[in-house]
Amino acid sequence: MDKIHKLAIGSIFVGTIVFVLKYAAYYITGSIALYSDALESIINVVTAVAAFMAVRVSAAPADANHPYGHHKVEYFSAVLEGVLIIVAALAIMREAYFGFLSPKMIDAPMEGLAINALAGVINAAWSWILIHRGRRLRSPALVADGRHLLTDVMSSGGVLVGLMLVPVTGWAWLDSVLAGLVALNILWSGWSLMKESIGGLMDEALPDTTLTRVREIIAVNAEGAIEAHDLRTRHAGKMTFIDFHLVVPGAMSVTDAHDICDRLERALKADVEDALITIHVEPDNKAKHAGIVVL
């Protein structure tokens, strides 16, 4: 079992522990704001399971029906996570609305807040691990899971601070207001996550800084060629796809042209991790006198 699978399983385990703690905090206090936190934790567990399934499928080798691999399935996991986050936010808004109409003081606030704080610390540590390792392992599903947990941590922190004021001020309605704010924050994070994941499904190009670096590598390492044009790039999970046309002198042998392509592939793969490169070689009469000039 590789590192990505282990982290995905760890998310299920951590999510379950955090949910139990947060539900316990809600159970002893009756707080709607803590209920919203517990409800989001259920979503954490569900999305952790979805992320685990996604990384398992994405790790499967290419086959006849999927010659480019199964890497995009991780984006589907992230989109599902975004949808579930939005559903949770709407459910919390409903509870917050009815709670605001009939406010009541929460029970055992300090005990409940202490339990919720412990859950928040666990979530904070695990979200940092997921984001840090997910980026290193180039796993959109793990990074999305980590960002979701980070949002949970921030909203939990706001809830804790706000609920401390309830017994001091006697403002019972503050509990419902906090739950509503948590729901809005969750709603925004869910939309942002879906937007980013849909970008991956739509084959967005590499970021401008990375694209500039790819162009520089081609220009420096294509000695013997004339130019490169029609450069296209896209992401699919942890894989990066790069393809372009390489113009060489018409009299150049196939062997020499192939050697240039091999040199370009080595240079690009050394700089861009998990890159799959396709180079279409063309004779000099196909030059467009645009694109990447060979240095």
TrEMBL record:
It is found in: Cell membrane. It holds the Pfam family ZT_dimer. GO terms for molecular function: cadmium ion transmembrane transporter activity; ferrous iron transmembrane transporter activity; zinc efflux antiporter activity. Residues 11-202 form the Cation efflux protein transmembrane domain. Keywords: Cell membrane, Membrane, Transmembrane, Transmembrane helix, Transport. It comes from the Bacteria. InterPro entries: Cation_efflux, Cation_efflux_CTD, Cation_efflux_CTD_sf, Cation_efflux_TM, Cation_efflux_TMD_sf, CDF_Transporter. Coiled coil: none annotated. Belongs to the cation diffusion facilitator (CDF) transporter (TC 2.A.4) family. This is Protein p34. It comes from Microvirga flocculans.
